[in-house]
Design a protein that fits this description.
about 60% helix; binds fe (ii) ion; Hypothetical protein af1432; about 200 residues; single chain; mainly alpha
Length: about 200
Amino acid sequence: MSLLLNRNSFGNAADAGNVLSRDEAEELFNTWVLNPRLQLHMKQVAALMKSWAAEKENLNEADQWRWEMAGLLHDADWDQWPERHCKKIIEELENRNVDPEIIHAIASHGPLHFGVEPETKMDKMLFAFDELSGLIHAYSLMRPNGYEGMDLKGVKKRLKEKSFAANVSREDIDDACERANITLDDLIIFIIPKQATVTL
Ligand SMILES: [Fe+2]
Ligand SMILES: [Fe+2]
C-alpha cells in the first residue's frame, strides 16, 4: 500500500493565513479521531508545535495557532482511513481553503511515506516532534511515575535499545534533527516538560 501523495504543491497561495477556528478544528478532530491514544498523540504534538512557535520562533498568537493546528490535525485521517493517511486530511483542508503552509507541513510529516520533503521550519519541526514525541510517551508509560523525574539520559538509553518502541524510526529522528538544525539532546529536553502537562 502506497501513501505517496505524488505532488508537491498544496492548497492555494491566496489562502495564506486562513485557519480553522479552534472550535472548527476541534469538531473535525472529535469526529475523525476516535482512538484516545491517537488523540493524545495529536494533542501532544500540537502542544509541542505551539510552544516551539511561541518560545523558539517568537511568533505571535495567530502564527502560534497555525503551528498548533498543523500538529493537532496531522494524523486526523489515520484512525478511520489509514489507507488514505495524509491524503484525506489534506484534501479536506484544501476544500476548506486553509493556509497552504499548514497543509504542506501535514503533507511532509513523513517524507518517506508521503514523498514530500519538509521545507519550512513548521514542516521540519512537525517531522522532528512526531516520532520522538511517541517514543518519549511510550517511555513515560513504562515508568512508575510517568514523566516525573524523566531525564535526557533515560530517553537516550531507550533510543539506543532497538527493541524499545521498535516502530519508531531512529533514522527518521536523526534525519529530522539534522533537517531542523537542532541537536537531539535539545529536542528531547524541550519535549519532556511540555509533553508532561498534556492530557486528554
Ligand atoms: Fe502520521
Ligand atoms: Fe503523528
